[in-house]
Automatic annotation (TrEMBL):
DNA-binding protein H-NS-like N-terminal domain mapped to chain residues: 6-79
Protein origin, superkingdom: Bacteria
UniProt source species: Halomonas caseinilytica
Keyword check for Coiled coil: yes
UniProt keywords, alphabetically: Coiled coil, DNA-binding
InterPro entries: AT_hook_DNA-bd_motif (IPR017956), H-NS-like_N (IPR054180), Histone_HNS_N (IPR027454)
Name the record gives this protein: DNA-binding protein H-NS
Length: 99
């Protein structure tokens, strides 16, 4: 079954019913079990990702607080970026300006 087929089934209840008619009750129960496991796994992954983001935000806040307590600013920590040198102009730049 392709990804497009699963998306169609997920978006449209009638398509899902038509696909389900082709399966036996045993197959439908197994499918429901597998989908339940996939949903649980995705929920766990999402929770883990949110926890990691929250931990990162806490660490960032702590670092900012320490910087402020030390009397520094973020600009003090980041050196000035070197200015980019411009690349060569297009070969026909002079001709384009004339035309």
């Amino acid at each position: 079954m392709s990804n497009q087929t699963l998306e169609r089934i997920a978006r449209n209840k009638n398509v899902a019913r038509a696909a389900a008619r082709q399966l036996s009750m045993e197959q439908l129960h197994k499918l429901a079990e597998v989908i339940g496991e996939v949903i649980e796994q995705k929920n766990d992954e999402e929770k883990r990702r949110q926890e990691e983001e929250a931990q990162k935000a806490r660490k960032l806040a702590e670092i900012r607080e320490q910087i402020n307590e030390a009397g520094l600013s973020l600009e003090d920590l980041v050196p000035d970026q070197p200015k980019r040198k411009r690349g060569r102009p297009p070969k026909n730049a002079k001709d384009a300006d004339k035309g």
